[in-house]
Design goal:
Blueprint (H helix, E strand, L loop, with lengths): L8 H29 L4 H8 L1 E2 L12 H11 L3 H14 L4 H14 L4 E8 L5 H21 L5 E8 L4 H13 L3 E5 L4 H14 L2 E4 L14 E3 L4 H15 L4 E6 L4 H16 L3 E2 L13 H10 L2 E5 L5 H11 L4 E4 L8 H4 L8 E4 L11 H9 L6 H19 L8 H8 L26 E7 L7 E5 L13
Parallel strand pairs: 2-3, 2-4, 4-5, 5-6, 7-8, 7-9, 9-10, 10-11
Antiparallel strand pairs: 1-3, 11-12, 12-13
Helix pairs in contact: 3-4, 4-5, 5-6, 6-15, 7-8, 9-10, 15-16
């Protein structure tokens, strides 16, 4: 069994604070030092609130009195009390992944078992719905891993709230690096903070596995950067092929968010493939980063096109929903994985039926894995999306790599990274096995899903797979 030093949260925070202070003094001199050592600094307080093993409330939307009491007990190192309060809170809010992660961390702190630690970076502060989609997969993986342990060690998860912000990612990544117990990072959600963080983690030798960022710039970014989604170019090509060959839509309008680097990347790949197949892109400027689409632009789209490709920013779904509803079902709609969310189905009232989206994963009912059954039992089917599955996969990949480290070798950030790059590495995931290409992308397949109405009394929307879900990406035989 690997020997790992076990520290209490208070000791960890003190060690982390000193590491941050030293780093800040080197980088920013006296001004940074004053900022770090001032207990009254608003910025320092904000940063403190954005990193938590169990002592901070990062997602208040599901907070119960018991959850708050559990967090207070965790802060005081009363881990038995924290466990009891977290368990009670989960009875009231069973689909709250933050509480489940904190519960598992409290159990690890109270046990005599060795611990291994990872961090997860999610947009808890500004997009709690997406953060929870990711955290549900991570919490479920942590639960499964700790039933057997990683060579006898339990997995702890530190939650980092980067708010889908490049600025926050730049601020928080050095603090994650400064905690020597953090062996890897799962995240970020959007590509902008992922690219920013990866540029910091790479030279520091800290592995980052992004489960949801689909910018092409992350491919071949560096030897410490991975993704549990395939390269989006092939998904964009599959969506373009469906639009032209299956749906017969050859006059396409395009509305995208120019500030969303992942959706810009997807849009560019889609346009190249669409035009190569004979489709015509109608030139109607429609930049969703400028706010709600103007009525004149909508009228042009309705009059001059027979289809619309929507590529929004993940933090501005409301504008995408308004656009979808404004089309009133008069245009065939296509979209990136961004709109494959648990909330879009609940909030959209019309115009969405028949929209086809590219997806890195789909909840196949015939899947041989136990992920879906357990996820539906714990979270409810409506709460599960591809982000849940790919975040589960990122956590399971890290756990398998740690398990694979030879007993004679020390568990380090470098030995973990080496296992992920091993030619024979493979881990069980939410669906297909998890394998990485030399680029760091996942070897996988393209999936397209379509929005349909359920055949029930409430006539709610749901995602269902379409026929072209078998396009193979990458190679699995390396």
């Amino acid at each position: 069994m690997t020997s790992i030093q076990k520290n209490s949260p208070s000791l960890i925070r003190r060690a982390l604070a000193w590491s941050i202070a030293i780093l800040a003094l080197i980088v920013a001199g006296d001004l940074a030092a004053r900022w770090l050592f001032s207990p009254d600094s608003a910025s320092a307080a904000q940063t403190h609130d954005q990193i938590s093993l169990g002592e901070e409330l990062l997602i208040p939307t599901t907070a119960t009195d018991d959850k708050r009491a559990g967090i207070a007990a965790f802060e005081k190192e009363d881990f038995l009390g924290a466990i009891q309060h977290f368990q009670t809170s989960l009875l009231q809010q069973p689909n709250d992944p933050e509480t489940l992660i904190y519960l598992n961390n409290a159990r690890s702190q109270r046990s005599e078992d060795d611990t291994l630690r990872i961090a997860v970076s999610v947009p808890a502060g500004n997009n709690p719905a997406i953060a929870q989609e990711m955290l549900r997969g991570i919490a479920q993986a942590q639960d499964a891993i700790n039933q057997l342990g990683i060579n006898g060690a339990r997995l702890e998860v530190v939650i980092v709230d980067d708010e889908n912000s490049e600025t926050q990612a730049q601020t928080l990544a050095p603090k994650v690096i400064a905690d020597p117990q953090v062996l890897a990072v799962v995240g970020s959600n959007a590509s902008d903070p992922s690219l920013t963080a990866a540029a910091i983690y790479q030279p520091a030798g800290l592995t980052m596995i992004s489960p949801t960022s689909f910018s092409g710039k992350l491919s071949n970014f560096g030897s410490y950067t991975f993704r549990t989604i395939p390269n989006m170019k092939s998904l964009a090509e599959a969506l373009a092929s469906h639009a032209v060959k299956t749906a017969g839509k050859t006059k396409m309008g395009l509305c995208y968010d120019a500030t969303a680097v992942d959706n810009v990347s997807f849009k560019e790949d889609f346009v190249v493939a669409y035009q190569a197949l004979g489709g015509t892109l109608v030139d109607i400027p429609c930049d969703m980063s400028q706010g709600p689409i103007q009525r004149e632009v909508l009228q042009q789209l309705l009059q001059q096109t027979d289809a619309l490709m929507i590529a929004p920013h993940i933090d501005r779904q409301e504008d995408a929903i308004a656009l979808i509803e404004a089309t009133q079902g008069k245009l065939a709609l296509f979209s990136t994985p961004t709109l494959y969310t648990s909330t879009i189905l609940e909030k959209t009232r019309q115009g969405m039926e028949g929209m086809v989206l590219a997806a890195p994963w789909y909840a196949e009912r015939y899947s041989a894995t136990s992920f879906l059954a357990k996820a539906e039992q714990r979270w409810g089917a409506a709460s599960i999306t591809w982000r849940t599955a790919t975040s589960f996969d990122a956590t399971m990949a890290i756990a398998q790599a740690l398990q694979d480290i030879p007993p004679q070798n020390t568990v380090t950030r470098n030995s973990l990274q080496a296992q992920l790059h091993h030619p024979e590495f493979s881990a069980a995931g939410a669906g297909e096995s998890i394998q990485f290409l030399p680029s760091g992308d996942r070897a996988g397949r393209a999936i397209l899903v379509e929005v349909q109405r359920r055949n029930d009394a409430k006539q709610r929307f749901e995602f269902v797979a379409v026929a072209e879900k078998s396009a193979v990406l990458g190679v699995t035989n390396r």
